[in-house]
Amino acid sequence: MPNQTQEAKLTLNVCFGTSCFVRGARELYTGLMDYVKNRGIADETEFKVSFCCQRCEKGPILAVNGRVIERCTVEKAAAEIEKAFDL
Q1: Per DSSP, what are the bridge partners of residue 48?
Q2: 68: domain range?
Q3: Which Pfam families does this one have (predicted)?
């Protein structure tokens, strides 16, 4: 569990711009929240939202520690999260 001086190991930034939102960003966000909770890594994960990643036609967009995933699904994100945690 990170303390106040420790940064989260994982940062998930979901685009909530109109196009990404219509393409499933909200479902992606809630699915990822459930995923990190079920994997026991919620305390090491920071969630952020942005409002336009300038890739509207390829949404929903998720950045995992800065690595952008276009047309993201929970399954695609889970694979990247597993890599980040070496799971």
Answers
A1: 13
A2: 10-85
A3: 2Fe-2S_thioredx
Q: Which tokens is 27 given?
A: 């479902």
> Quick check: is 3 in a domain?
no
What's this model's pTM, rounded to 2 decimal places? 0.84
Q: Residue 33: which CATH number?
A: 3.40.30.10
Average pLDDT, 10 consecutive residues per value, the chain (87 residues): 57 95 96 96 94 89 95 96 82
pLDDT in tens, 58-80: 999 999 999 999 999 999 999 99
Tokens of 52: 């336009």
Task: Please check whether residue 11 is in contact with residue 2, taking contact to mean a CB–CB distance below 8 angstroms.
Answer: no
- 14, 55 Cβ separation under 8 angstroms: no
Residue 4 domain-assigned (yes or no): no
Unique residue bearing structure tokens 């070496």: 86
